[in-house]
Amino acid sequence: MRDPTKGHAALRRGRVSIPHAEYFLTVCTDEKHPGLSSPAAAPAILAELRAMDADLTWQLRCAVVMPDHVHALIVLGERLTLGQSVGRLKAKTKSSLLGAALPVAWERDFYDHHVRPGEDRSAIFRYIFLNPDRAGLCASGGRWPWCFCREADWSWFKGELNAESPNPEWLL
Question: Which domains does the chain possess?
Answer without folding.
Answer: 15-171 (3.30.70.1290)
